[in-house]
Amino acid sequence: METELDLFKWKQYESEVILLTVRWYLKYSLSYRDLVEMMEERGLHMAHTTIMRWVHEFGPELDKRIRPYLKPTNDSYRTDETYIKIKGQWKYLYRAVDSKGNTIDFMLSENRDAPAAKRFFKKALNSPHNQSPRVITVDKNPAYPIAVQHLKDEKAMNQETVLRQQKYLNNIIEQDHRFLKKVIKPMLGFKTFGTAEKTIAGIEVMHMIKKGQVECHHSSVLSAVELINKMFGLIA
């Protein structure tokens, strides 16, 4: 992980300004040009491409730095994929929340198949804030039973884990997709898979903070600002 000095070195603007624009873009339904206008009202003149570079740089960094602060999720996984448009083509965002709506994990994928589902579950199982699932609720996608069985065979998942294919039980994850879709809509599609991945990582972090998934975090705007500044070493 880069140090704070490396991250903000040679940047034209102060670290607080950079994190402010990144945070707003990832949290609200704004385009880059909206943010340029909002910053101009504050006497700050920046190109929309500058903000875009910051988002691509700090989105994944936020995801890395939030992980140690996340509260434990429970052992009931609600898993689903949603569609993300990249360069005019639909790709697949795998997402899971627990039975209380807390984000377990997410993963952007070129494909919607058993190897992709398996990679997603492995990512979720390797994240320290998650526990091994007691039950996984999914839709009728035939890839899920294959992926889960492979993980059980490899002893990466408990043999006792129950897989339920009941779409109506997954309303909680479908509702959760809406926040993401609302923020992504003004972005008018992503140009590359890599930039989509970086941006979505940041959006997911802001969503987790909003849902109160962070240790010692009370869901006020101010404490979200303080948390992010602390993660980047800007406050003790």
Can you summarize this structure?
Keywords: DNA recombination, DNA-binding, Transposition. The protein is α/β, with parallel strands linked by helices and 236 residues long.
Task: Walk me through what this model shows.
The chain is 48% helix and 15% strand. It is α/β, with parallel strands linked by helices. It has two domains: 4-69 and 191-231, no CATH class; 76-179, Nucleotidyltransferase, domain 5 (2-Layer Sandwich), CATH 3.30.420.10. Strands 3-2-1-4-5 form a five-stranded mixed beta sheet, sandwiched between helices. α4 (48-66) packs across α8, α5 (114-126) crosses α6 (143-153) and α7 packs across α8. The mean pLDDT is 90.
Highlighted features:
236 residues, alpha/beta, Nucleotidyltransferase, domain 5, five-stranded mixed sheet, 9 helices, 5 strands, 48% helix, IS_Transposase
